[in-house]
Design a protein that fits this description.
It contains eleven helices and 36 strands. It is of the alpha+beta class. Its EC number is 3.4.21.-.
């Protein structure tokens, strides 16, 4: 049987304008359904072959993307470096940049989709879709199924793989790093595998088999970042491709999910507050779908299946947080749902996984990680508190029904494997070399009291042997929108900063989802100010050494959403209608319009003192249009110049840098050039010695 996705909570990727993929195998959370809904995928090392030879790398720290930078001081393009003198007169930053961009290819680890089916493992090797026997998965003995170069795309990679039940076909979703567009290819498996069909702009897709043992592919089509249509297709002698469903409400989107036991294909229709699910019988896919519960405003629910029962994760009832309910599969309506398990207060459901006799919940309670193992035979619950250093889950491929494997990570610590074994009823930790960061750094869990008395959690990292933390530089991370957690996946440059004496503080402000649905519903901009004041008050750095990084909807630096008012009044933009639930409707509601004006960055620019800012944007970003960012930067420049006409004593004009990257992928990962530019910006603005940080960055390239 095909290994099914355990990523039960998986869909709002397609409605939020800020999704970032930390790793291709990243956990999903209940409100954004997060980074990748696809099959449990694990990290796999392979050498880059001709597909990427002499081209920028596509790993987290291995892509060199040219950019255009503008400085507020003259707003003219910064001159390009002379290649002939590149090796001469370079400072530490440029030397490291050259080092990053000329590393041997085999030193990099590419993170790619992988799926097990029958006795084979399907994955990407170099520029090819391949498969190998399960026992030979780590060897170089594999069969090439398709060469991605045939698609004539720039730097293609496989985002998702699905294998037909009888293993006659394999479907793979292909993307590039510089675009959110995708292509789904269908490869017929035979002695000479060949591509039989391809579909553009596919979002989610799943295989089922009908009564006549014919493979049927269901897939959703995405147009202008909106996903409203479901198609089903067959191949071979009985080839067809027909539209199966169209969602008429433009504020909703559609997502497909196959229950782990393959019994039902679910059509999930949802926006940010409301959902509706239809069931397609996995044994009779041509029969009409069955509605579980008609959409009710404010009610979210997601469905799994086991032994003729539906397990429903939903926020229905009080309190309006997620709870687990169940009902018989033949009586799915809401009046038949029975409460099965209730989450504690301040708890976020990160993921859910179904097994034959157990249900495993991956939770974040009061910003700490837990795993709850529920015995389905006796309704017993075993709650496991995970190590306090852990900040995020990475769900792993699970081909063994007796075990539940996963990984834990933090911003400064690489992923570490753990396995819960049902028979023993115990959690086992990966043995081997202990990462030295466990002894050389500290992780602290703090709280800041906001102006309304609410306690806001913070996670702080610093070196164990740091003396006088008040004199150390501080980098504050913040997000706080869409009910999404602040990204806390491992990044080598973050570890390098801690090694060089920096304090990293992650502020889990309201608007995010760290403490459950209510934490999103009560978003408040006052939290960040309280967090920074608390950090300073407890001896962590000082205002003159404090820096801030944010992304997208909390935009200050990377792909920022800066012109909220004008964007939300432009209904021609692809996501405006979907975003009304999050931001309000300024076109029809004067209260909404005035409220947005109060916090919209663009609307609040005025002549005053501003800090230096490094902004990264993308030329063809459909989610956050470049026009709004350029307008913001121009208006900010004018305000700074106006303020400079009557400066106070000692006033220095801030450095405002707009770094425009090519491409249109809002969630693009950081390139070497961007990382070094941002770190250079931090060190120069604070007047810090950068020698050791870049030496350490070179060292951590070989993790």
């Amino acid at each position: 049987m095909q290994q099914k996705s355990k990523l039960f909570l998986q869909a709002l990727k397609y409605s939020v304008p800020h999704l970032g993929k930390c790793m291709q195998k990243q956990h999903l959370n209940h409100y954004n359904f997060a980074d990748h809904y696809y099959n449990r995928i694990k990290l796999k090392k392979y050498h880059l072959t001709k597909c990427l030879q002499n081209k920028p790398k596509i790993s987290e720290l291995a892509r060199n993307i040219p950019s255009r930078s503008f400085s507020c001081k003259d707003f003219l393009p910064i001159k390009q470096e002379n290649e002939k003198s590149l090796s001469e007169n370079m400072d530490a930053f440029e030397k490291v940049r050259a080092k990053l961009e000329t590393q041997p290819q085999e030193e990099y680890e590419i993170i790619n989709a992988e799926i097990k089916h029958g006795g084979f493992v399907y994955y990407q090797e170099g520029c090819c879709l391949v498969r190998s026997k399960d026992e030979e998965a780590d060897s170089d003995n594999y069969e090439v199924l398709f060469n991605l170069e045939e698609l004539k795309l720039d730097q293609p990679f496989i985002d998702c793989i699905r294998v037909a039940p009888d293993e006659k076909y394999v479907a793979a979703k292909i993307r590039t790093e510089d675009s959110e567009a995708s292509t789904c290819i269908i490869v017929k498996l035979s002695d000479q595998p060949a591509m039989e069909a391809s579909f553009p702009n596919v979002s989610s897709f799943e295989w089922v088999k009908d009564e006549e043992d014919e493979d049927v592919l269901f897939y959703t089509f995405q147009r202008n970042l909106r996903c409203h249509d479901v198609y089903r297709a067959t191949f071979g002698d009985n080839k067809r491709n027909e539209r199966f469903y169209t969602e008429k409400d433009p504020s909703y989107f559609v997502f497909l999910y196959l229950t782990k036991d393959s019994r039902f294909l679910t059509i999930n229709i949802m926006n940010k507050t409301t959902s509706e699910v239809w069931l397609i019988d996995g044994l009779s896919p041509w029969d009409p779908p069955v509605l579980i519960q008609k959409r009710i405003h404010g009610v979210l629910y997601y469905v799994e299946h086991r032994d003729d029962e539906l397990y429903i994760l939903t926020n229905v009832g009080e309190p309006t947080e997620f709870k687990l309910m169940r009902t018989a599969a033949d009586t799915p309506a809401i009046m038949n749902w029975d409460l099965f398990f209730t989450m504690k207060r301040n708890t976020k459901v990160v993921d859910l996984d179904m097994f034959k006799d157990h249900c495993v919940l991956f939770l974040k309670h009061s910003n700490l990680l837990y795993v709850n193992v529920i015995g389905l035979a006796d309704d017993s619950v075993r709650s496991l508190k995970l190590p306090p250093w852990a900040c995020g889950f990475i769900m792993d491929t699970n081909s063994d029904p007796k075990n539940c494997p996963f990984q834990l990570c933090s911003p400064i610590r690489p992923p570490k494997y753990y396995t819960y074994k049902f028979a023993e009823g115990k959690l086992f930790e990966e043995t081997g070399h202990e990462d030295p960061i466990t002894k050389t750094s500290r992780v602290l869990r703090l709280e800041a009291k906001s102006k309304d008395g609410k306690l806001v959690p913070m996670t702080v990292f610093h070196k164990t042997d740091s003396e006088d933390l008040q004199k150390k530089p501080l980098l504050v991370h913040v997000y706080g929108a869409y009910g999404m957690d602040l990204k806390m996946n491992f990044r080598p440059e973050r570890r390098v900063l801690v090694d060089d004496g920096w304090i990293l503080a992650y502020c889990h402000v309201r608007g995010g989802g760290e403490l459950g649905l209510q934490w999103h519903g009560h978003g408040l901009g006052l939290d960040l100010e309280a967090c920074i004041k608390t950090l300073h008050g407890q001896g962590f750095s000082q205002p003159s050494l404090t820096t801030l990084t944010a992304f997208s909807a909390w935009g200050a630096l990377c792909a920022p959403f800066l012109d909220v008012l004008n964007t939300m009044m432009d209904t021609t933009l692809p996501l405006t209608l979907e975003e009304l639930e999050e931001w309000g409707n300024p076109s029809s509601d004067e209260k909404h319009k005035n409220y947005i004006k109060r916090y919209c960055p663009y609307q609040n620019i005025k002549p005053q003192h501003y800090p230096s800012i490094h902004i990264t944007a993308y030329e063809n970003d459909e989610r956050v249009p470049l026009k709004g960012i350029v307008n913001y930067t121009e208006k900010l420049k004018e305000a700074i110049m106006e303020h400079a006409k009557d400066p106070s004593e000692g006033y220095q004009t801030p450095n405002i840098i707009l770094d425009i990257q090519p491409g249109g992928n809002h969630v693009i990962e950081d390139s070497h050039k961007k990382i070094t530019a941002q770190i250079k910006f931090l060190y120069e603005e604070l007047g810090l010695d950068s020698t050791s940080v870049f030496e350490n960055l070179k060292k951590y390239l070989k993790f």
